[in-house]
Every structure is written in C-alpha cells, then in structure tokens.
Specification:
2 strands, 142 residues, globular, two-stranded antiparallel ribbon, single chain
Length: 142
C-alpha cells in the first residue's frame, strides 16, 4: 500500500545502534591513538588476559587477518605483549601491558558517559531488561 509505513526490523535497529556507538566510540578513543576495534580488543584482554589471537579475534568480532594487523599495531605501541603459552609452546598468548591498562583507565570515564547517554531515557529496570534482552538475543544466535 502506498503511504503505509512499516516498523524497521530489529536487525536493522541493532545495526543502527552498532554503527552509532562505533562512530562515537571512535571519536572518544581517537585522542588516545587507537580505534574502536582496538579499544574492543583491549577491553576483551582486560576481562580475559592471556588469550590466543584466534580467541581474541572471536571475542573482539573481527577476522583472524584483521586481528593479526591489530595485534601488531597494539604490540608496537606497547599496549599488549605476546608470550609463549607454558602449556603449549607453539601457541602465543596475548597479554595486556601496564601501558594498555593505563590507556583503558584514561578513556574509561568518557566511555562510561557514552553508555550512560545511550540509556539515559531508560529506567534502571528497563536498562537491566535491555541488557538481559541483548544477552538472550546473542545467545539465541551463537
């Protein structure tokens, strides 16, 4: 029908949110000399230090090739280091350095403000429901 508006799909809305968050995040971390993707990888290591490149790529939502480039860049800046896995000498583990932790601490406030801005119009209960709904949606597709 002409003139009939349909609601955007949830997939479209999730993608819109992802893109706007990434754009704002890129602007927030740019002064620290990193990208939103690099920030994501650093936060993954902050939560789970000592990951293989493959696991870090999966948890950071990038391809193995992209992660290889990203790791080289972060390592050259001294934000991460690689060392042999004592249980599997062939595997290299990626660890966050003190410099990486300091960088994350410097951008923590602005990143927290961005997240607060994103949910500002939600009640505390709605924010918790939103968090749970996102988790359930992710698990349903994983």
């Amino acid at each position: 029908m002409v003139g009939t508006q349909t609601r955007p799909s949830l997939l479209y809305m999730v993608k819109q949110l992802e893109l706007v968050v990434r754009s704002h995040l890129d602007e927030l971390v740019k002064p620290a000399g990193i990208t939103a993707l690099q920030y994501t990888a650093l936060t993954v290591l902050e939560r789970h230090d000592g990951l293989s490149a493959a696991q870090l790529a999966r948890d950071s939502f990038v391809t193995a090739q992209s992660m290889s480039d990203l790791v080289r860049s972060l390592e050259s800046r001294g934000l991460i280091r690689r060392e042999r896995n004592p249980r599997s000498r062939r595997e290299l583990l990626i660890l966050l350095t003190d410099a990486g932790r300091e960088l994350l601490a410097r951008v923590a406030g602005p990143v927290r403000e961005l997240e607060e801005r994103m949910v500002r119009e939600l009640t505390g209960h709605q924010e918790e429901q939103f968090r749970q709904a996102l988790g359930k949606a992710w698990h349903a597709l994983s």
